[in-house]
Amino acid sequence: xxxxxxxxxxxxxxxxxxxxxxxxxxxxxxxxxxxxxxxxxxxxxxxxxxxxxxxxxxxxxxxxxxxxxxxxxxxxxxxxxxxxxxxxxxxxxxxxxxxxxxxxxxxxxxxxxxxxxxxxxxxxxxxxxxxxxxxxxxxxxxxxxxxxxxxxxxxxxxxxxxxxxxxxxxxxxxxxxxxxxxxxxxxxxxxxxxxxxxxxxxxxxxxxxxxxxxxxxxxxxxxxxxxxxxxxxxxxxxxxxxxxxxxxxxxxxxxxxxxxxxxxxxxxxxxxxxxxxxxxxxxxxxxxxxxxxxxxxxxxxxxxxxxxxxxxxxxxxxxxxxxxxxxxxxxxxxxxxxxxxxxxxxxxxxxxxxxxxxx
Amino acid sequence: xxxxxxxxxxxxxxxxxxxxxxxxxxxxxxxxxxxxxxxxxxxxxxxxxxxxxxxxxxxxxxxxxxxxxxxxxxxxxxxxxxxxxxxxxxxxxxxxxxxxxxxxxxxxxxxxxxxxxxxxxxxxxxxxxxxxxxxxxxxxxxxxxxxxxxxxxxxxxxxxxxxxxxxxxxxxxxxxxxxxxxxxxxxxxxxxxxxxxxxxxxxxxxxxxxxxxxxxxxxxxxxxxxxxxxxxxxxxxxxxxxxxxxxxxxxxxxxxxxxxxxxxxxxxxxxxxxxxxxxxxxxxxxxxxxxxxxxxxxxxxxxxxxxxxxxxxxxxxxxxxxxxxxxxxxxxxxxxxxxxxxxxxxxxxxxxxxxxxxx
DNA sequence: GTTAGCACTCCAAAAACACGAGTGCTAACA
DNA sequence: TGTTAGCACTCGTGTTTTTGGAGTGCTAAC
Lengths: 359, 359
What we know:
Arc Repressor Mutant, subunit A, 17% strand, DNA-binding, alpha+beta, Beta-Lactamase, 5-stranded antiparallel sheet, 13 helices, homodimer, Enolase-like, domain 1, 3 domains
């Protein structure tokens, strides 16, 4: 990145800061008066002209002030001093609800964050793909249905009703239960491969086909790995005129309504996180891995509970959002979640009180 | 309601039909030319004047055409001849997925309907409050957690992890299982009253407290009776300029995002259905039991699978929506759902293949 | 009872206008 | 050489004016 002398930096900073507040193109005179550098508007004008040439600023039309380009925003974001004494969201009230359902927790969390930031917010619940099977339980529902309940590490529970052609005796069921548990317990989803499966089937003898469908269902049920997506505050975009024209609003809201698109987005983000190693990501305009958001910025925090169990909180807003506030808050949430849920992870095997989960 | 002579009816009908199509105030000349009654614009004007006096029409301003009042719409809706040979939505493709999860089914259904009607759509999954308990299964997760799985009629499954203070022996667990099942099987939620509970607790002896928490959790889990709400197509309101001004759009979208509001709405609708006895309801403007929709109409179909298991499909649109199409389609969907899911209900005990459910 | 004709109303879109914020440039100044 | 004052010019915004047309209500004739 180009080097800017100190004065240019200050001016650029001042311009962007002002623009973030007002959303209006900012003129030389404003900066001359507001900033603490004692410079006339003419001087500022010259510098602005330079900054425009360098690609940090642009003007919507000849006789308007300047607004930041994406490059300008990037400069700004990269220079944010990480959270001094900004007030920070506290989720401890929410965390009390920890032994309630995850689902409920995330619903509350997402609306809490959206409420506080006044921005559209999306959260993905921790994905469990690398989680281990704790135990599987099959039971008879009626003569042609059996119920399979799979409990994963973290007490995530999934269940499914399977149709069978012939009734199973309780005895047979017991045997199948033992068989399945012997082989699956402690394995992650990835580790349950064809080898394992055929071994189990072999030992199941006449019940091989049942095993087959049980295992399929188990895999199906668990690896139903569209991320669980929670959203809130979509309509907050209307607070920003620059995103409110109906064209934009429709595109945005449509994307926000489509959980699959969002899941893709989160997946992409999580890949980036894996590469970059930092949990906090800022995407400005085109940087975001989704076209419909080229006029927005996306700030994400990916929390990691270990064992590949992770989720992401994302906040979407106009490019001129209050990055500092959003970033510090997301960072704090990330830490809090990691601490609280993570601790639960740690202690679960001893005295844990981890929540329950939806199927 | 006032009697209108035949000519007035035809004219009113023609005016409304035209307005539904165009969304523009309709003038006397248009009707004079388009309708098959051979009348001059002057005559039509006189009749229109009468209709305005009678409260069926109104004009936005002196020199504009006429638009229907709510009373006009009501006249129109009440006179719709029920579905001649309109094409009708077929959900059979969707129904194939019947052995998949309900949740998935409704997600697909709601987006399918929204897609086809190009209108915001809301669906409530069948509520299960009057459903019977089929069986309950407790199992040990680890030394201080037990898992309770409750299967309801219709193979609706709910599960929850309960924390216990002292580990339970498998033996004790078995006894509890038998005890609970003996007393609860076949009961609806309403039937599980204090009497039943204290009887069970008495018999549970030293495990009374566990029973207590199990029962609580069971009740909690099941009667978590915020209706399950699915929505889709919210952004379709932007297709109608009269609803697209940002004021309106924000209010509407906010309501549509808030599942609780929608649940209330559906509850109100279901009460109306109970009173009126008909599954199909049309609310025009203020008639809808929700303020934020006073500029919209709401068409609902409530399907009833018997035993108090019912759900509602609702479509929200501008007052000038294509009522005929929407009503016939909703009616058809209602019938299809009742037939398919209802049949499953019937036959479940024999050869059913009903789906599974989320917690 | 129906229709042709006409004057009148009123909105919507287009055109005309004024305003002002902001720029770039030049020339003077330290 | 860097800074500043001054000025002409640009261009978007908001306001007012103008115009056109669609539609009505009324009257008078059929």
